[in-house]
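Each letter names a residue; the fold follows as tokens. Both lines appear below:
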Amino acid sequence: MNSTGLDISNPMTSLRLFGLEKQFNNFATLYKNKKLPKIILLTGDKGIGKFTLIFHFINYIFSLNSDSSYNLQDFLINENNTSYKKILMKVEQNFNYIGSEKPNAAKIEDIRNIKKKFYKSSLNNFPRFTILDDVELMNINAANALLKLIEEPSVYDYFILINNKKQKMIETLHSRSIEVKIFLESEQKNKIFNDLKENFKIENNFLDRYINFTTPGMLIRFSSLFEKLGIKEEESFYDMISKLLEQFKKKKNTLCLDSVDFLLDVKFFQLATNNSDRVLEISEIKNKLINLFNQYRNFNLNSDTVFNQFKSYSNYVR
């Protein structure tokens, strides 16, 4: 349970950087030496801390000449900094964000709106950062509009593309960027997860033991969702999935389907471990379920059809 009142799904509420300090220092050094690439592609699993990393880096730059500067020793944003407050109020003209706070990937209209904002905003001799999250989900029209926007950035403009590896991204976007891959070792995962729980005052949950199946940020969000939906460890796997699908049907919250993917990984790993003579059969069933839920996510299948097909596999997912 989160007892801080903070929105743990919003990285902008995290004043502290959890892990990735080395990557932060690399970016800071590049900027100091005027070698920061104009178009950076951050690649890594969702919930690993990519947005938090770049958000802290941007706040560090915006506060360089401020009395409320970024705390480089402890990697902390000063909440009294004017730019930070403006970002939270969405009035900081040098900070633009498109992505996961919306239910869908960036559309061509979103890119056009950013372009219009560029024309309306006068450059103020400060760097301007544009972050595009879930960039791998962009369709070809949005990607082409983005390519036109980034082909000749001004001396003040920087573009940060965040690739959460949900699918293969459009190659032309990849080739125009300098890619930085973010990966966490098992020990780093555990430390960041424990730090997040302490920071947000989150009580232990039965999901905690499955950190190796996902990322720290996603596990925190899964735990919060399970608490909200009243999902308990003693419930059957089938009932857990049913509750998540029912919630997705009502709210269209994609976190529900991300949770389903996570539970499938855990459940079928356990099945394969305990039934080594049936690994191929178990793998085939898992792949069929993954395909079913991916179609539900991507093609808006009828909910009843998905429920009925899922029921047919109930003997495997008790």
